[in-house]
Design goal:
Order of helices and strands: HHHH
CATH topology of the largest domain: Arc Repressor Mutant, subunit A
Largest sheet: none
Number of strands: 0
Radius of gyration: 25 Å
Shape: rod-shaped
Structural class: mainly alpha
Number of helices: 4
Strand content: under 5%
């Protein structure tokens, strides 16, 4: 694969289909599309690991990762609110002079 070339998820899925479903030789497919054989093997591995969202990257996240990140941010925001409220209570509960 040429440095910096990006392939769409649809292109990768079609390449995987050529190898897995149609039984074409990985070396032949790699030569035809202009990528290294190992690249196709990596695409197949990623697809087998997670068929629903196999090719995330470049700033994209899997839906579970996005949900977890959102939940962690919400927890951090709530912890910060609690700390601010504790400081406010401490200030307002001081005896007046």
């Amino acid at each position: 694969m040429r440095n910096g070339t990006r392939y769409s998820p649809e292109f990768k899925k079609e390449t995987i289909r050529l190898v897995t479903e149609l039984g074409q030789d990985v070396r032949k497919v790699a030569q035809d599309i202009g990528v290294h054989e190992n690249t196709i093997y990596k695409w197949i591995q990623k697809y087998q690991e997670n068929p629903e969202e196999p090719f995330v990257g470049s700033g994209h996240q899997r839906s579970e990762e996005a949900e977890l990140r959102k939940a962690n941010k919400r927890v951090a925001d709530l912890e910060q609110e609690v700390a601010i409220l504790k400081k406010a209570i401490a200030i307002f509960s001081r005896p007046q002079k």
